[in-house]
Amino acid sequence: MFEQLLTFVRDLLQEYFNVNLGVDILTRIAQSLVIIAIIWLLRWVALRIVHRQFRRDPRLLYSWRKVVQYVSAIFGIIFVGRIWLQGVDTLVTYLGLVSAGLAIALQDPIVSLAGWLFIVWRRPFTVGDRVQIGDIMGDVIDIRVFAFSLLEVGQRIDAEQSTGRIIHIPNGVVFKEALVNTHHGYPFVWNEIPVMVTFESDWEKAKSILTNIVRELAPDVSEGIRKYQKRADRFVITYGNISPTVYTSVADSGVVLTMRYLVDPRRIRGSEQGIWEATLRAFRLHWDIDFAYPTQREYLHFEEGKKPPHPQEAPTVVAKKNWMTTDTGFRPITHKEEE
What domains can you pick out in the chain, each with its CATH number? Predict the structure, then answer.
């Protein structure tokens, strides 16, 4: 009965559409359609199960959806290919010539396919990671066979926050550009906030205030560090000191006090806002601390410069000044040498 149906279809195509197909070709087409329908049905059932099991975890849901899609596509190619490539020995020479031409004509897609295999095998990044490739930074939201997609961060706005734009990048770019992943290794990055005070300010008091502020308001990363140290990782990363600290340096316009601390990459702006607001409130209470900024003024050295001591005066003794934290709202700290 099946052969009679195929014969009827062949006659119908030849009579109305002037398409001459043999019964053998129609048989292969029918078999291919049946296989595709079965695989599509199994794929639909598998996706329903995956959605039911992992609907509360977007990352696992995405990963299992991709697994189901790739597995169904691979099985479809294998089973349908076996139908159409019977007698494959006769096609070896032909396929060799065709593949050589395709390798030249489709160089970029082939490189992108190789890039996809590299991403899947070596996993330089996964969905959800924040990466930077060249001048482009964003959160990975999708990885496909020929390209991956980023939710852009920065660029249009002056902060490491999402712009709402989606950028599609060919997978082959992983072989050409340096890739920065802020979520490999430690789940935190070092962030620095420089604060410049004038040379006339009491910079030691300012440093004490800033140290109290950053140690009070910097995120607590100890739990995340412990979790990272317990798990096996291919990267060997060790820090001698992960406590927030303040470094001192000198610039043209004043003394630079740089607060340095660990923070989740997606919470940098929020942490900076809290620390800056606390700094502004604390400095407002001290008349001997002023922010420095580029400006010009007349400097008279004979009036403002250092004067030599009077010969009859006793030698000046410089005593270590107590760290002053009056009116800052923060408890005093003990200064330790930073590594």
Answer: 2-86 (no CATH), 124-181 (2.30.30.60), 189-304 (3.30.70.100)
